[in-house]
Amino acid sequence: MNGRALPMRWLLSALVLCLGGTGSLAAPDTALPPDAPPAADAAASARAPAPAASEAAAAPTARDAASMPVHPAAPAIVPAAPNATVEQPRSFGHVLGDVLTQRVLLSVGGRDATPTTLPPADRVGPFLERRAPQVGPDRSGRRWLTLEYQVINAPRALTALALPALSIATDAGVLQVGEWPISVGPLTPLATFNQGELQPLRPDRPVEPVPTAAIERRLKAALIALAAVLGAWTAWWASRNAREARRLPFARAWRQLRGLEPDSAAAWLAVHHALNAAAGRAVHAGTLTRLLADAPYLQPLGPQLENFFRHSAQRFFAATSGLAPGGFALRELGLALREAERRHHA
Of 184, 200, 226, which residue constitutes the final position of a domain? Predict the structure, then answer.
Protein backbone atom coordinates (compact mmCIF):
# COMPACT_ATOMS: atom_id res chain seq x y z
CA MET A 1 0.00 0.00 0.00
CA ASN A 2 2.81 2.40 0.84
CA GLY A 3 4.54 1.61 -2.43
CA ARG A 4 1.40 2.45 -4.43
CA ALA A 5 0.73 5.70 -2.47
CA LEU A 6 4.23 7.09 -3.10
CA PRO A 7 3.55 8.27 -6.69
CA MET A 8 0.45 10.06 -5.48
CA ARG A 9 2.52 11.97 -2.92
CA TRP A 10 4.95 13.01 -5.65
CA LEU A 11 2.08 14.28 -7.79
CA LEU A 12 0.69 16.26 -4.84
CA SER A 13 4.13 17.80 -4.22
CA ALA A 14 4.46 18.81 -7.88
CA LEU A 15 0.96 20.33 -7.74
CA VAL A 16 1.90 22.36 -4.67
CA LEU A 17 5.05 23.64 -6.38
CA CYS A 18 3.05 24.64 -9.45
CA LEU A 19 0.60 26.59 -7.30
CA GLY A 20 3.44 28.60 -5.68
CA GLY A 21 4.23 26.50 -2.69
CA THR A 22 7.73 26.44 -1.25
CA GLY A 23 7.67 23.00 0.24
CA SER A 24 9.71 19.99 -0.87
CA LEU A 25 9.15 16.23 -1.00
CA ALA A 26 9.78 16.08 2.69
CA ALA A 27 6.51 17.93 3.45
CA PRO A 28 4.18 15.09 2.35
CA ASP A 29 6.33 12.64 4.25
CA THR A 30 5.86 14.69 7.36
CA ALA A 31 2.11 15.10 6.88
CA LEU A 32 1.54 11.45 5.91
CA PRO A 33 4.02 9.03 7.43
CA PRO A 34 4.37 5.67 5.65
CA ASP A 35 3.24 3.65 8.62
CA ALA A 36 -0.02 5.56 9.18
CA PRO A 37 -1.57 6.56 5.84
CA PRO A 38 -4.94 8.30 6.02
CA ALA A 39 -7.98 6.32 5.13
CA ALA A 40 -8.88 8.54 2.23
CA ASP A 41 -5.45 8.08 0.66
CA ALA A 42 -5.61 4.36 1.20
CA ALA A 43 -9.07 4.08 -0.33
CA ALA A 44 -8.06 6.25 -3.24
CA SER A 45 -4.97 4.17 -3.74
CA ALA A 46 -7.04 0.97 -3.66
CA ARG A 47 -9.62 2.25 -6.15
CA ALA A 48 -7.13 4.04 -8.46
CA PRO A 49 -5.77 2.09 -11.41
CA ALA A 50 -2.11 1.47 -11.83
CA PRO A 51 -0.19 4.61 -12.83
CA ALA A 52 0.42 5.02 -16.50
CA ALA A 53 3.86 5.07 -18.00
CA SER A 54 3.60 8.83 -18.58
CA GLU A 55 2.92 9.43 -14.89
CA ALA A 56 5.86 7.26 -13.93
CA ALA A 57 8.01 9.25 -16.31
CA ALA A 58 6.71 12.53 -14.87
CA ALA A 59 7.71 11.63 -11.32
CA PRO A 60 11.45 12.33 -11.86
CA THR A 61 10.56 15.72 -13.45
CA ALA A 62 8.60 16.74 -10.36
CA ARG A 63 11.44 15.54 -8.15
CA ASP A 64 13.92 17.66 -10.12
CA ALA A 65 11.66 20.75 -9.86
CA ALA A 66 11.25 20.27 -6.14
CA SER A 67 14.99 19.92 -5.63
CA MET A 68 15.81 23.22 -7.46
CA PRO A 69 17.04 25.99 -5.09
CA VAL A 70 14.75 28.96 -4.52
CA HIS A 71 16.57 32.35 -4.54
CA PRO A 72 15.10 35.23 -2.49
CA ALA A 73 14.11 38.43 -4.41
CA ALA A 74 16.66 41.32 -4.42
CA PRO A 75 15.71 44.04 -1.89
CA ALA A 76 14.49 47.37 -3.35
CA ILE A 77 16.86 50.36 -3.07
CA VAL A 78 15.23 52.93 -0.79
CA PRO A 79 16.73 56.43 -0.90
CA ALA A 80 17.99 57.86 2.32
CA ALA A 81 15.56 60.10 4.14
CA PRO A 82 16.31 63.83 3.94
CA ASN A 83 18.23 65.05 6.96
CA ALA A 84 19.21 68.58 5.86
CA THR A 85 17.64 71.84 6.96
CA VAL A 86 16.58 73.54 3.74
CA GLU A 87 15.01 76.91 2.97
CA GLN A 88 12.93 76.19 -0.10
CA PRO A 89 11.72 78.64 -2.74
CA ARG A 90 8.08 79.35 -3.52
CA SER A 91 6.49 76.34 -5.20
CA PHE A 92 4.17 78.13 -7.61
CA GLY A 93 3.94 81.10 -9.93
CA HIS A 94 7.21 80.63 -11.84
CA VAL A 95 7.77 81.49 -15.52
CA LEU A 96 10.64 81.70 -17.97
CA GLY A 97 13.67 83.53 -16.56
CA ASP A 98 12.78 83.20 -12.88
CA VAL A 99 15.55 82.21 -10.47
CA LEU A 100 14.69 79.85 -7.62
CA THR A 101 17.00 79.98 -4.60
CA GLN A 102 17.44 76.95 -2.35
CA ARG A 103 19.54 77.26 0.82
CA VAL A 104 20.94 74.27 2.68
CA LEU A 105 22.23 74.63 6.25
CA LEU A 106 25.71 73.14 6.50
CA SER A 107 25.19 71.25 9.74
CA VAL A 108 25.14 67.51 10.43
CA GLY A 109 23.92 66.37 13.84
CA GLY A 110 24.37 69.84 15.29
CA ARG A 111 27.96 70.06 14.05
CA ASP A 112 29.19 72.54 11.46
CA ALA A 113 30.06 70.86 8.19
CA THR A 114 32.21 71.80 5.24
CA PRO A 115 31.27 70.38 1.82
CA THR A 116 33.93 68.23 0.23
CA THR A 117 32.13 68.21 -3.14
CA LEU A 118 29.54 70.62 -4.48
CA PRO A 119 26.81 70.04 -7.04
CA PRO A 120 28.08 71.15 -10.45
CA ALA A 121 26.64 74.03 -12.40
CA ASP A 122 24.74 72.19 -15.07
CA ARG A 123 21.41 71.82 -16.78
CA VAL A 124 18.78 69.98 -14.74
CA GLY A 125 16.19 68.59 -17.10
CA PRO A 126 14.64 70.46 -20.00
CA PHE A 127 13.38 73.42 -17.96
CA LEU A 128 15.95 74.18 -15.22
CA GLU A 129 19.61 75.09 -15.07
CA ARG A 130 21.64 75.10 -11.86
CA ARG A 131 24.09 77.93 -11.36
CA ALA A 132 27.42 77.66 -9.57
CA PRO A 133 26.75 77.01 -5.85
CA GLN A 134 27.98 79.43 -3.20
CA VAL A 135 28.82 78.97 0.47
CA GLY A 136 28.48 81.85 2.92
CA PRO A 137 27.39 82.74 6.47
CA ASP A 138 24.20 84.45 7.55
CA ARG A 139 23.88 87.18 10.17
CA SER A 140 24.05 84.68 13.02
CA GLY A 141 27.24 83.09 11.66
CA ARG A 142 25.69 79.86 10.39
CA ARG A 143 27.01 78.71 7.05
CA TRP A 144 24.62 77.94 4.19
CA LEU A 145 25.01 76.39 0.78
CA THR A 146 23.08 78.48 -1.74
CA LEU A 147 21.80 76.74 -4.85
CA GLU A 148 20.13 78.76 -7.61
CA TYR A 149 18.01 77.24 -10.35
CA GLN A 150 16.89 79.32 -13.33
CA VAL A 151 13.91 78.49 -15.53
CA ILE A 152 15.37 78.40 -19.07
CA ASN A 153 12.39 77.03 -21.01
CA ALA A 154 8.72 77.96 -21.08
CA PRO A 155 6.22 75.11 -21.13
CA ARG A 156 3.11 75.28 -23.30
CA ALA A 157 0.88 74.68 -20.27
CA LEU A 158 1.19 74.74 -16.51
CA THR A 159 3.73 72.01 -15.69
CA ALA A 160 4.77 70.38 -12.42
CA LEU A 161 8.53 70.04 -11.97
CA ALA A 162 10.82 69.37 -9.01
CA LEU A 163 14.12 70.65 -7.80
CA PRO A 164 16.29 67.51 -7.73
CA ALA A 165 17.24 65.58 -4.64
CA LEU A 166 20.88 65.93 -3.67
CA SER A 167 23.45 64.07 -1.60
CA ILE A 168 26.06 66.57 -0.42
CA ALA A 169 29.22 65.02 1.01
CA THR A 170 30.74 66.94 3.92
CA ASP A 171 33.49 66.36 6.42
CA ALA A 172 30.84 65.60 9.07
CA GLY A 173 28.64 63.28 7.03
CA VAL A 174 26.26 63.31 4.09
CA LEU A 175 23.48 65.86 3.81
CA GLN A 176 20.41 64.50 2.07
CA VAL A 177 18.20 67.06 0.35
CA GLY A 178 14.84 65.85 -0.87
CA GLU A 179 13.02 66.86 -4.03
CA TRP A 180 11.00 70.04 -3.92
CA PRO A 181 7.98 70.24 -6.25
CA ILE A 182 7.38 73.46 -8.18
CA SER A 183 5.12 74.56 -11.00
CA VAL A 184 6.14 76.51 -14.09
CA GLY A 185 3.66 78.16 -16.41
CA PRO A 186 3.82 79.68 -19.90
CA LEU A 187 4.37 83.37 -20.41
CA THR A 188 1.25 83.70 -22.54
CA PRO A 189 -1.54 81.30 -23.43
CA LEU A 190 -1.49 79.60 -26.79
CA ALA A 191 -4.90 81.01 -27.69
CA THR A 192 -6.69 84.14 -26.55
CA PHE A 193 -10.34 84.64 -25.83
CA ASN A 194 -10.96 87.17 -28.63
CA GLN A 195 -13.29 89.11 -26.38
CA GLY A 196 -13.03 92.80 -25.76
CA GLU A 197 -9.36 93.66 -25.27
CA LEU A 198 -8.36 89.98 -24.92
CA GLN A 199 -6.94 89.82 -28.44
CA PRO A 200 -3.82 88.09 -29.85
CA LEU A 201 -2.12 91.43 -30.48
CA ARG A 202 -2.72 94.73 -28.77
CA PRO A 203 -2.20 98.05 -30.55
CA ASP A 204 0.66 100.28 -29.61
CA ARG A 205 0.10 102.16 -26.42
CA PRO A 206 -0.67 105.79 -27.24
CA VAL A 207 1.92 108.17 -25.89
CA GLU A 208 0.44 111.13 -24.09
CA PRO A 209 1.86 114.39 -25.44
CA VAL A 210 4.20 116.14 -23.06
CA PRO A 211 3.21 119.75 -22.36
CA THR A 212 5.83 121.86 -24.10
CA ALA A 213 4.36 125.34 -23.80
CA ALA A 214 6.62 126.29 -20.89
CA ILE A 215 9.66 124.81 -22.65
CA GLU A 216 8.85 126.73 -25.81
CA ARG A 217 8.50 129.98 -23.86
CA ARG A 218 11.87 129.49 -22.19
CA LEU A 219 13.46 128.59 -25.54
CA LYS A 220 12.06 131.72 -27.17
CA ALA A 221 13.28 133.88 -24.31
CA ALA A 222 16.76 132.34 -24.55
CA LEU A 223 16.88 132.87 -28.32
CA ILE A 224 15.75 136.48 -27.95
CA ALA A 225 18.40 137.09 -25.31
CA LEU A 226 21.05 135.49 -27.52
CA ALA A 227 20.00 137.60 -30.49
CA ALA A 228 20.09 140.74 -28.35
CA VAL A 229 23.59 139.94 -27.11
CA LEU A 230 24.84 139.20 -30.62
CA GLY A 231 23.22 142.35 -31.93
CA ALA A 232 24.71 144.47 -29.18
CA TRP A 233 28.16 143.00 -29.76
CA THR A 234 27.88 143.56 -33.49
CA ALA A 235 26.75 147.13 -32.97
CA TRP A 236 29.60 147.77 -30.55
CA TRP A 237 32.13 146.24 -32.93
CA ALA A 238 30.84 148.30 -35.88
CA SER A 239 30.73 151.51 -33.88
CA ARG A 240 34.21 150.87 -32.52
CA ASN A 241 35.60 150.34 -35.98
CA ALA A 242 33.82 153.42 -37.25
CA ARG A 243 35.07 155.48 -34.34
CA GLU A 244 38.62 154.24 -34.74
CA ALA A 245 38.44 154.86 -38.46
CA ARG A 246 37.65 158.47 -37.75
CA ARG A 247 40.03 158.91 -34.80
CA LEU A 248 43.15 156.82 -35.50
CA PRO A 249 45.45 158.16 -38.22
CA PHE A 250 46.47 154.90 -39.86
CA ALA A 251 42.83 153.71 -39.86
CA ARG A 252 41.82 156.89 -41.72
CA ALA A 253 44.71 156.44 -44.15
CA TRP A 254 43.75 152.81 -44.83
CA ARG A 255 40.15 153.82 -45.53
CA GLN A 256 41.38 156.40 -48.02
CA LEU A 257 43.85 153.96 -49.65
CA ARG A 258 41.09 151.48 -50.42
CA GLY A 259 39.43 154.10 -52.63
CA LEU A 260 42.56 155.42 -54.35
CA GLU A 261 45.05 154.21 -56.91
CA PRO A 262 48.32 153.14 -55.22
CA ASP A 263 50.42 155.25 -57.64
CA SER A 264 48.37 158.41 -57.18
CA ALA A 265 49.80 161.37 -55.30
CA ALA A 266 46.73 161.47 -53.04
CA ALA A 267 47.50 157.94 -51.81
CA TRP A 268 51.11 158.85 -50.94
CA LEU A 269 49.99 162.02 -49.23
CA ALA A 270 47.45 160.07 -47.14
CA VAL A 271 50.29 157.92 -45.71
CA HIS A 272 52.44 160.98 -45.06
CA HIS A 273 49.58 162.72 -43.21
CA ALA A 274 49.00 159.59 -41.11
CA LEU A 275 52.69 159.44 -40.09
CA ASN A 276 52.63 163.14 -39.21
CA ALA A 277 49.45 162.68 -37.11
CA ALA A 278 50.92 159.67 -35.29
CA ALA A 279 54.12 161.58 -34.46
CA GLY A 280 52.42 164.90 -33.76
CA ARG A 281 54.83 166.67 -36.09
CA ALA A 282 56.14 166.47 -39.61
CA VAL A 283 58.05 163.29 -40.28
CA HIS A 284 60.66 162.75 -42.98
CA ALA A 285 63.54 160.37 -43.47
CA GLY A 286 65.75 162.28 -41.04
CA THR A 287 63.21 162.16 -38.16
CA LEU A 288 62.05 158.57 -38.72
CA THR A 289 64.27 157.28 -35.93
CA ARG A 290 62.55 159.61 -33.44
CA LEU A 291 59.13 158.40 -34.62
CA LEU A 292 60.09 154.77 -34.05
CA ALA A 293 61.35 155.65 -30.58
CA ASP A 294 58.10 157.46 -29.69
CA ALA A 295 55.89 154.72 -31.23
CA PRO A 296 57.49 151.33 -30.44
CA TYR A 297 54.63 149.43 -32.07
CA LEU A 298 55.94 150.75 -35.42
CA GLN A 299 59.50 149.49 -34.93
CA PRO A 300 58.88 146.16 -36.74
CA LEU A 301 57.91 148.26 -39.79
CA GLY A 302 61.12 150.38 -39.71
CA PRO A 303 62.69 148.95 -42.89
CA GLN A 304 59.45 149.37 -44.83
CA LEU A 305 59.09 152.98 -43.62
CA GLU A 306 62.68 153.77 -44.68
CA ASN A 307 61.95 152.30 -48.12
CA PHE A 308 58.71 154.37 -48.21
CA PHE A 309 60.57 157.63 -47.62
CA ARG A 310 63.16 156.79 -50.34
CA HIS A 311 60.44 156.10 -52.89
CA SER A 312 58.54 159.21 -51.76
CA ALA A 313 61.60 161.36 -52.33
CA GLN A 314 62.10 159.69 -55.70
CA ARG A 315 58.48 160.39 -56.60
CA PHE A 316 58.20 163.98 -55.44
CA PHE A 317 61.83 165.11 -55.69
CA ALA A 318 63.18 163.05 -58.58
CA ALA A 319 64.72 166.10 -60.24
CA THR A 320 66.95 166.88 -57.26
CA SER A 321 67.52 163.38 -55.88
CA GLY A 322 68.70 161.81 -59.10
CA LEU A 323 66.81 158.54 -58.28
CA ALA A 324 64.85 156.71 -60.92
CA PRO A 325 61.18 156.26 -60.12
CA GLY A 326 60.22 152.75 -59.14
CA GLY A 327 57.25 150.72 -57.88
CA PHE A 328 56.38 150.43 -54.21
CA ALA A 329 53.69 148.36 -52.44
CA LEU A 330 51.96 151.30 -50.82
CA ARG A 331 48.69 149.55 -50.08
CA GLU A 332 50.48 146.70 -48.23
CA LEU A 333 52.32 149.24 -46.09
CA GLY A 334 49.07 151.04 -45.24
CA LEU A 335 47.45 147.75 -44.16
CA ALA A 336 50.49 146.82 -42.04
CA LEU A 337 50.38 150.24 -40.33
CA ARG A 338 46.63 149.78 -39.70
CA GLU A 339 47.08 146.35 -38.11
CA ALA A 340 49.96 147.52 -35.90
CA GLU A 341 47.84 150.47 -34.73
CA ARG A 342 44.84 148.24 -33.97
CA ARG A 343 46.91 145.81 -31.94
CA HIS A 344 48.39 148.74 -30.03
CA HIS A 345 44.96 150.19 -29.15
CA ALA A 346 43.19 146.88 -28.55
Answer: 184
